């Protein structure tokens, strides 16, 4: 069964850092691009970042470029999102999703940026 | 960046109604568009990929059409479980972008 399980969310102060993880199982992780999407409370979906199947290419939304870094460990089937210089507007539920077409989603991990 | 708009932003409908949601892209994106359904407190679920292809397991009352800059999602006969928020996503040009969503309620 295909599964994506996010973790690493929590409360962090503005300017702080957090690293999210997404553990994948049930499909060939090393053959799939992976995506991060976020959703602020009561708001719509916001595409954040994508990494190619081998990590060779990465893409970011303008709002996070230079602050967030997407990476992956294909030996452990884990996707990461390193988030630095966090702002209040980064508060959201962060989802990982399979491939560029977001064919399958995890349940999300909540990040709250507040003093 | 490509901007996505959706209309309407919300609609009220009854069981059995035919519902159509439109998504427009600020630039042509061929058929690089998907439709997603999200119910309260749940993760989104893909319904349609490549503009008009039905995801496996999704009821046939859902259909998608369009290419270039204008796309539609149609629910032929609304069922109680279809009350949700629907989003389009363009994946034709980085950064990818979602539409603002259409909330379908009773």
Throw out a few tags for this protein.
heterodimer; A: 115 residues; seven-stranded mixed β-sheet; four-stranded antiparallel β-sheet; 11 strands; B: 48% strand
Q: If you had to describe this structure to a student in words, what would you say it looks like?
A:
The complex is a heterodimer of chains A (115) and B (106). By secondary structure, chain A is mostly beta strands. Chain A has no helices and 11 strands. Chain A has strands at 3-7, 10-12, 18-25, 34-39, 45-51, 58-60, 68-73, 78-83, 92-98, 104-105, 109-113. Chain A is globular and about 40 Å long. Chain B has 106 residues and is mainly β. Chain B is built from no helices and 11 strands. In chain B, the strands form 2 sheets. In chain B, strands 2, 4, 5, 6, 9, 10 and 11 form a 7-stranded mixed β-sheet that branches. Chain B is globular and about 35 Å long. The chains are: A mainly beta (115), B mainly beta (106).
Round the Cα radius of gyration of chain A to an integer and report it: 13 Å
Order of helices and strands of chain A: EEEEEEEEEEE
* Poorly predicted sequence stretches spanning 5 or more consecutive residues of chain B: none
Question: Assembly state here?
Answer: heterodimer
**For the residues shown, what is the average pLDDT of chain B?**
97
Kindly, what is the distance between the CA atoms of the first and last residues of chain B, rounded to a whole number of angstroms?
Answer: 35 Å
Whole-number average pLDDT of chain A?
Answer: 98
The largest interface is: A-B, 21 and 23 residues
Structural class of chain A: mainly beta
List SSEs of chain B in N-to-C order: EEEEEEEEEEE
Shape of chain A: globular
Sketch the major β-sheet of chain A: 7 strands, mixed
Number of discrete helical segments of chain A: 0
- The rounded distance between the terminal residues' Cα atoms of chain A is 40 Å
Q: Report the sheet-strand fraction of chain B.
A: over 45%
Helicity range of chain B: under 10%
């Amino acid at each position: 069964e295909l599964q994506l399980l996010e973790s690493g969310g929590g409360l962090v102060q503005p300017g702080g850092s957090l690293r999210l993880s997404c553990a994948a199982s049930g499909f060939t992780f090393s053959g799939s691009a992976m995506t991060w999407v976020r959703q602020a409370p009561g708001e719509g979906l916001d595409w954040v970042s994508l990494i190619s199947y081998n990590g060779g290419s990465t893409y970011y939304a303008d709002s996070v470029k230079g602050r967030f870094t997407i990476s992956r460990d294909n030996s452990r089937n884990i996707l990461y999102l390193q988030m630095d210089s966090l702002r209040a507007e980064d508060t959201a539920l962060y989802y990982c999703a399979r491939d560029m077409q977001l064919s399958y989603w995890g349940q999300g991990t909540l990040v709250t940026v507040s003093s | 960046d490509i901007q996505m708009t959706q209309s309407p932003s919300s609609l009220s409908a009854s069981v059995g109604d035919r519902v159509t949601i439109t998504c427009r892209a600020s630039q042509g994106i061929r058929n690089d568009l998907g439709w997603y359904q999200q119910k309260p407190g749940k993760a989104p679920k893909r319904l349609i990929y490549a503009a008009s292809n039905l995801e496996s397991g999704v009821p046939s009352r859902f259909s998608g059409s369009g290419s270039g800059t204008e796309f539609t999602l149609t629910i032929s006969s609304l069922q109680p479980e279809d009350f949700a928020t629907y989003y389009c996503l363009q994946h034709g040009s980085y950064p990818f972008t979602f539409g603002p969503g259409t909330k379908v309620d009773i």
